């Protein structure tokens, strides 16, 4: 298998199919496109999500906090606590470990999330520092938003712009590949995206507004997330390619490195479905969150189309493969 997420077909056949489902208090279980698990405690639910950081070196501590908190936010729940596992390669200095831990603690404090446990180890099993974080949140069971809740007729809303996390990682970890190809100002702007990869704010706003489903856009980019919401919800999706926001610097970096911005890891962007798409966009924008309607949900579950009216093209949206970022490894 290639680097990146295990393909969905393999995930279903080898991983998900083997999971036993027998606890009545578990009401949100693993599935394609689902970001979280949830356990019922009376009228409330404990919501959990776990993720590793393997594709980035710089700012790995910051990223590890945001990606897990973003998953919890996609269920409309406030993240409360984090379990952090840090695996260091043999030869890691104390200063390197301290830098990662400072990033983790500072980022968590900014989100009002407490570090509640974890594990730290030096091992020859890894060749760079690997972080895995598990986030815990709490909310009313009746208010949990699922990735599988998209309904025909819903608008599809996307926050911020495609490829934000990937753009920041490339500018930080692969700047040598961009030397002489993009300007210093463009590189600095690209690096600044790392400050905007939280979707906790829009998750809370959209959840209270009436979102039917939410999915933070990570590996596989916008099109990967679109496919996963369609698969999870058993509904069709039509996306207007010309309406997907992409920053100019992202387009430029992807052009010179021959990458697809719509398949590039995009933490910081949330995909949301909602019956009142225009109202939700206004609500998000009035609260300082950039948002745009990029498509709609249809009743035909086999309909997953990417349409460009400008270029007069129609493409079928394929299942997510290895993220574009891995092409640079």
Automatic annotation (TrEMBL):
Coiled coil: none
Domain PurM-like N-terminal per the UniProt entry, residue ranges: 33-137
InterPro entries (alphabetical): HypE, PurM-like_C_dom, PurM-like_C_sf, PurM-like_N, PurM-like_N_sf
CDD domains listed in its UniProt record: PurM-like1
GO annotation, biological process: protein maturation
Pfam families associated with the record: AIRS (PF00586), AIRS_C (PF02769)
Highest taxon listed in the record's lineage: Bacteria
Domain PurM-like C-terminal: residue ranges: 151-305
Family note: Belongs to the HypE family.
Protein name per the record: Hydrogenase maturation factor
Species this protein is from: Ruminiclostridium sufflavum DSM 19573
